[in-house]
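S1.2 Input.
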Amino acid sequence: MHLARAIPVLAFLAFGFAGQASASLCDAPFMHDQGKLRLDGTGALRLGANLAFSEVRKTSTDECQVRITGVATFGLAGLPPGKSALDYWMTLRSGNASFEREAASGGREPVEGKFDLRMVGLFSYGEPITRAGQTFPARKFQINVDHKGIDSKPVVVHTGTKTVGNKTEISTAAGQQECWPIEYSRVIESTQASFSGLVMPIPEIRSTVVDWFCPDLNMVMRQESRQQGVSSTVEVTELK
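S1.3 Output.
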């Protein structure tokens, strides 16, 4: 998976599947044939995606497969802004994702990049959110991306202790919702990326993050973050 495709895929999965505090990833509201998810981002991390879901097969509550098509956009850590068409089969198993794409022969071929979908601490909080002041432990995740776009070292993500704030009514794509703000720190370790043979350093990214988890939707509908004093927002703007 070239970095130009890896970044939006990772971004959409990190946020789009962010929703499940206790339910399985395979039970996300958009995980069905003709499901749709749109994300729009503003600020320092300009991440967006307009995605459609089809060919959904569920083996169990934590194992399923889906075809994802659409377009993702990104502007991240000073990288050139870009747009990428997506067409992958994704298999989810025990919180991890693997990808396949259509091969020249007409069958499928594996994509090397894979990662823990909980990489930014969004997928699973470990237990239901029940009160303000509730905390969830710090965690460490890594993303393994195809070497064609990024060096062989994994991208390492650290999330600090997460603390739940007071439930607040916010406006979402599904109307007004009572949602829990969950605040934590996030560190993405420095790495390198290659563009047409040119190796570029990607600096460490330190952020403070707030996830707005809406229990009636069982999803994080908005993520707000600050990097070096600059704010960013990624928000679900369509959910079907």
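S1.4 Remarks. Helices lie at 3-16.
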